[in-house]
User: Fold this.
Amino acid sequence: MVFKVKFRGVRGSYPTAKFSHLKYGGNTSCVEVNVRDRLIILDAGTGIIELGENLTRDHILSGNSTDERTPIKATILISHIHQDHIQGLPFFSPIFIKTTELEVFGPDTGKEKLKDTLSTLLFDKGFPVSLEEIQGNININSYSQRQILVIKENNEHVLINAGDIKSQDFNENDIIITSYKTTAHPKNGSLCIKIQHRGKTLVYATDKECYVGSDKKFIEFAYGCDLLIHDAQYTHQDYISPIMPKQGYGHSTFNMAIETAKLAKAKKLYFFHYDPNYDDNILDMLDKDFQNMTVDFNFSKENLEIAL
Ligand SMILES: [Zn+2]
Ligand SMILES: [Zn+2]
Assistant:
């Protein structure tokens, strides 16, 4: 096993605290990925909060005092700064432990650095504690699709410009992270993230609307991946609804996710980022409707774990 993946939040747009949504889950975007000896967290929607509780519990159980305990270390990759991808971060309890070391990477918005955006949006104005007052060590780094992020064997994080790749930059124990920017998501796009390690590939593509006839560059980016986690916010009927069409909202339909997985020859597809209006009954019905598809598809659910 190279990757251990656990879905922590699979809902799009906003969290849904409803009994009718418990089977698939109501927390917003967050996927926990354990690869080599590194914890990588894809997005920081409300799903990250329970992950934080689990990490903090294990940390407390690891020793009698803060200095004796095993520090919490993780890499958080942010696809974009819409609320459902960042709103859990101030409530991620490890940030309040002084030995915690977090490396956060995500895209800048326009001319503003990611660090400044998160600091203002999440902490200074909307939270009682500012980013500077947080006890844990949080490094917030700007990351773009022109860069490759390599997590070396000693967990050093190295950013390489895509144009400067030389074979000696990598060794087989590296975790290699690349991204693809989808511009169809208003207003600043969203980064699709690819993680590669020891011949296995995981692609996380959220808040991504497909084009008519598919997104050829994305297909190339995701080609042959072992696991594709893909935006499936809408049914086809809602996407083309004559009353309130969802075209142009920056999200895909279940059918688009299937088409993309087919063209990219993804070995496994997991639907992700469900519309908050779709309760368990609707998602169960869709699951039945798609049964005769040739693609190996699955519905992601909160707390579902898979191994690659
Ligand atoms: Zn979203
Ligand atoms: Zn978004």
Observations:
- The helical segments are 47-61, 114-124, 216-222, 236-239, 254-263, 280-289.
- The longest helix spans residues 47-61.
- DSSP finds six helices and 15 strands in the chain.
- The domain at 3-307 is CATH 3.60.15.10 (Metallo-beta-lactamase; Chain A).
